[in-house]
Known about the structure:
The complex is a heterodimer.
Chain A: H1 5-22, H2 26-46, H3 62-91, H4 97-119, H5 123-141, H6 147-182, H7 191-197, H8 203-221, H9 229-236, H10 239-266, H11 273-291, H12 298-319, H13 321-353, H14 364-367, H15 369-383, H16 389-404, H17 406-431, H18 447-461, H19 465-478
Chain B: H1 3-24, H2 29-54, H3 59-85, H4 97-118, H5 124-146, H6 150-170, H7 177-197, H8 200-204, H9 209-212
Helix pairs in contact in B: 1-2, 1-5, 1-6, 2-3, 2-6, 3-6, 3-7, 4-5, 5-6, 6-7
Amino acid sequence: xxxxxxxxxxxxxxxxxxxxxxxxxxxxxxxxxxxxxxxxxxxxxxxxxxxxxxxxxxxxxxxxxxxxxxxxxxxxxxxxxxxxxxxxxxxxxxxxxxxxxxxxxxxxxxxxxxxxxxxxxxxxxxxxxxxxxxxxxxxxxxxxxxxxxxxxxxxxxxxxxxxxxxxxxxxxxxxxxxxxxxxxxxxxxxxxxxxxxxxxxxxxxxxxxxxxxxxxxxxxxxxxxxxxxxxxxxxxxxxxxxxxxxxxxxxxxxxxxxxxxxxxxxxxxxxxxxxxxxxxxxxxxxxxxxxxxxxxxxxxxxxxxxxxxxxxxxxxxxxxxxxxxxxxxxxxxxxxxxxxxxxxxxxxxxxxxxxxxxxxxxxxxxxxxxxxxxxxxxxxxxxxxxxxxxxxxxxxxxxxxxxxxxxxxxxxxxxxxxxxxxxxxxxxxxxxxxxxxxxxxxxxxxxxxxxxxxxxxxxxxxxxxxxxxxxxxxxxxxx
Amino acid sequence: xxxxxxxxxxxxxxxxxxxxxxxxxxxxxxxxxxxxxxxxxxxxxxxxxxxxxxxxxxxxxxxxxxxxxxxxxxxxxxxxxxxxxxxxxxxxxxxxxxxxxxxxxxxxxxxxxxxxxxxxxxxxxxxxxxxxxxxxxxxxxxxxxxxxxxxxxxxxxxxxxxxxxxxxxxxxxxxxxxxxxxxxxxxxxxxxxxxxxxxxxxxxxxxxxxxxxxxxxxxx
Lengths: 479, 220
């Protein structure tokens, strides 16, 4: 097999996972982890220049190219953050060296699984990859072996398994719909073949298939009311994993949904997937916005904020059309960058304060100015205030909706405002006010956090025309 | 396909639905495991029959996995875990038998209505297999929500998964079936190892998932 960038995106994490599983020295393996994610990112970038032909199993096009670059970039910055985070966890004895070895190996398996899910051209292979990603994150969530961590892992396990089981049923139904048209065998599961021939599929079967896929992969996206696993998994796992879960894995599941949505869009007789996604998106947004108020755990707070934003993104893609899709893509990118930056900050905050309880964290800007202001900036960004990137994308979602469905836009704006107020209410206590908790100096790596925030800030001020053109192109693909 | 081929495939798929009903009202863990082993056995027979009539030798691998792994290894492992955890005498009940059965009948009716209506064009065997498979999947889900014990939730999940394998083998010529059934077996193995290694019993003094709720982060 000839080595190309596509192989690199898959091979580097796979080899690194095997290597890291055997290395006992955690300092070396943490650095190797960073090196592997850097290499993967470089491979992903080069996919823009040299693009392999789609095969029966793998495919790179403009849509998943965007996702892959985002995934590998956040994977890379998170590995840098994890370097100092894991060092601290070892120091205070929350993790032991064997667990750290396991953690690093699993981190790479997760990167492999996510990349595989993104480049898969075969809907069966995509399903297997998402299952693998679920399994690895379950293992990571339970890594602390506390009551809470085990509960979260178990809950995630059961709900995630049911979700992917439903998604498999949907996948089988898609095959059943394709078989009379495409013929038996491998071709009837290859996405590029399916999307070319989908016009002739039995629409009723496709409808039922999409409902199963929406429920199945929607569980993984964390859409309300299928979200129950998400806050627990975010709160109890190691913070780098919370960052990867929020920033990346939810996107990957959404990507799978988008692929099937494109399939249904080709078949004019099938039901329009848009309204279903719009409904679930709005429910998630409004529900999560209200849930922000009563949170006592800082990681849970931002987990609910992730549900809120996945709701907005699903809503935007559900509305469809060039403008809403553009807004959805932009929002997804901005949310991934901002939310992982917030989790980087939160990870260090919980380490210096020794707790995740919001009540025990206060006056961060006084005790830890850099960390506190970084977190405050992140929250300002995620709440959607100008001039940051999320304001831009939310503004686009809202304005495109007002033009087409004013009633939905009112609900959307209502949800956004409720969420904004909820976040600021909590931020006020955490970042300002009376300093609480220990004020020992933090040994943190601020670079990944501020790099993300700088990108979000830059995107809010000025989007390079090349990037805009790229997103417009991808938005056009989504139909 | 001759008449008898169709009838036997039909019979085995129907039997699977019936055994799913049997699982619904088992209130002792041992009995539940035995019924599940039977479920897996019938699945293996059904998959092997499909392999035979479709002339698809790779499906024998899936049948073998169902037979060895699900009908023998998993039940035996769960048996030992139950003994080790000392919960083999426990009787659990969340929803009454009558309610659970009625809900189950409703779900089977639902899946028949949905599946038979949307699959006019598929061949009759695939069509009815799919309807049966969806029934098994929904009954498995029902079992997962009506049980509070971690072990019986796992059994519910595995019978749900049996339904998926039934659907995948019924869809004639579907690629990757073997790979998918292996992936699922790994998942199940992880869950079972999870119960044991995480030592839910030791940590919580019970495998009753209801007890886990007490440790929710929100109530600290």
